[in-house]
Amino acid sequence: MKGIMKLTTLSLTTIAILSFAVAVFAQQPQATPPPPTAPRTVQFPKPVEKILPNGLRVVVVQRSEMPLISSQLLIKSGGEVDPADLSGNADMAAALLAKGTTTRSATQIAEAIEALGGLINSGARWDSSVVSVDVMSSRIGPAMEILADVVRNSVAGFCQSPKYFCARANPFSGVMSPPITRMALSGR
Predict the structure, then answer these.
(1) 100: phi then psi, degrees, rounded to nearest 5
(2) CA separation (Å) from 86 to 112, 113, 127, 167?
(3) Tens-place pLDDT, residues 139-155
(4) 121-133 confidence digits (pLDDT tens)
């Protein structure tokens, strides 16, 4: 038994030393770097822009080889319009959008998006507020219905408790009219 233990310890020690030596030699820099490869041409997809009758600007960048659709509704209004005494209000208001609507609870929204294998996010930056949904292209219809519900009907506790909820209404209210579903589906 002692002989097996000594042999195992010796084997492990040898392996450790060899691994260390390989790691040390692998980290030695080359004397001269390899030559650069020839430049490759890059083909960026061309964005297609359309203005809907309600004034909503839609920009679609189509990549047909990808089975994923990533859709964002972006409003050019973010933290920069927060009152001085209510800093962070835009981000909080936008982050709360997916926390419940007049037709779905936060749990129902999460379960519905999860059942589609998708993801919904909302938040605000300094200069914009955004709501986004990512989903497989075959499931874009139901995902856009959820996104439209979140944008149009969010209740998110606005004006129900602390005054900072009331200071700024849903940044997306009044922006979206019924063409949201057409806008999103046109990206297919």
Answers:
(1) 135, 145
(2) 33, 31, 16, 8
(3) 999 999 999 999 888 88
(4) 988 888 888 889 9
